[in-house]
Predict the 3D structure of the following.
Amino acid sequence: MTEFKILRYDPDKDKEPYFQTFTFDSPKGMTVLEGLIHIFENIDPTLSFRSMCRAAVCGSCAMHINGLYNLSCRTQIDKYGGKVTLRPLSHLPIIKDLVVDLEPFFENYKKVMPYLIPKNDPPKKEYIQSEAERKKIDPWVDCILCAACYGACPVQATDPQYLGPHALAKALRFIDDSRDGGGKERLAFVASDFGVFRCHTIFNCQEVCPKKIDPTKAIAKLKMKALFG
Amino acid sequence: MYESKSGFFKKYVDEVGLNPNVGTWAWFLHRLTGVILVLYLFMHLFVLSSSLAGGETFNKWLSTVQNPVFHFLEIGLAAVVAFHLLNGLRITITDFFFVTKSHKTIFWIAMIIFLILLIITLIVFLPRVFSHH
């Protein structure tokens, strides 16, 4: 028997979130997300959670699973010996059950201008990027914006204005891009009071990232760029 | 929508509970030792500044802190300084040399050095706790 302890909250009924336990049989290899779908289909249809691709690509099913923020679609129930505790992502308002409002997360993300800004004299045809130049941004392009790092970052708990690991890693991805011309403008913002120097180097973003990106390293690199150019 | 209304200290403790890993503990202890050091600094400056009121007052304050209880607290102070210093170096090293993936190894190396320093401190300071000056 598998035991799912889920933090529930219904804005129409509850004042505070509370834990509810569900028990059911889980076959070998069942993921946490499949467990949630099982509960939704067979036990309690009022349970709310986000999911989409079931293949760790879309980044919508991130939640707190037994002490680690992770994507529920890539976490197997067997790993935890049949006892799973689920909480929604921290540092974001809960809309219902495991669904959080990602607005603050994306507000911070937009601040670093996560798009290519053309250089002063753009080429007549296409931008040409060498293999080496592309390799430089390889570690940072895989982010799926699941907000696991945002939930895991203790700085975010006390300072919601802090840009967050997701935004800062993305900033480096564009600053290091050979086609981008907005480096200085972006760097000035990244080096502000709410940027890289607000980071306490706690390494939780690196610990939880389901795509094995290392935002702490991105932040360390941005600190150097902000200091020495 | 529900937003957590936890107070400042509760938030800190919650973060450790939700992220039980080396990085969070190192950060939490770094903060704690930092606060202790600031409080100690005020006490330290208070005792030293008594010298401004003349040698006699200074000697009186110094003799107040020369007792087993304060000698015992000195061991704690050495431990607090050692942890804050070593973890600070760990963060500096990971930041400056981009060795963020090795932060756990560096933490445990720092803790071994911490233990060695603590043992040396105990050898030096424990006799002072039990002897009278």
User: Anything to note?
Assistant: Chain A touches chain B through 34 residues (CB under 8 Å). Residues 215-228 of chain A form the longest helix (14 residues). The longest strand of chain A covers residues 2-8.
